[in-house]
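Review form for a predicted model. The reviewer records the input and the model, then writes brief findings.
Reviewer: anonymous (R2)
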Amino acid sequence: MADFLIMITTVDTHGAARKLSRSAVEAHLAASGQVTGPIETTYRHLGEVSEGTEYQVTFRTTDDRREALQRHLAENHPYDSPEVIAFAIDSGRSEYLEWITRATR
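Model under review:
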């Protein structure tokens, strides 16, 4: 597994996105959380194709904070079954990666 991750989720309001971002950073589960949006989403749910507006929150974290961050997002998310996915950071400037580690301690 990678030592550093980008984890993302989407929510339905700007306020919910800001709340998740701030709570994760305050809890030292993520070094940062960036809110992007609004974004237009097309999705299938309960057999129907729907469209809506969402906000994406992108977190930078360490692998040892992965499970705690996933749990935090699921517990504080407005959706019943939220998207919470992670991507490995394969490389980055050592100073930046060290900052992620310091910020999540």
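Findings: The two ends are 20 Å apart (CA to CA).
Further findings: Residues 87 and 105 are 21 Å apart (CA to CA).
Recommendation: see findings above.
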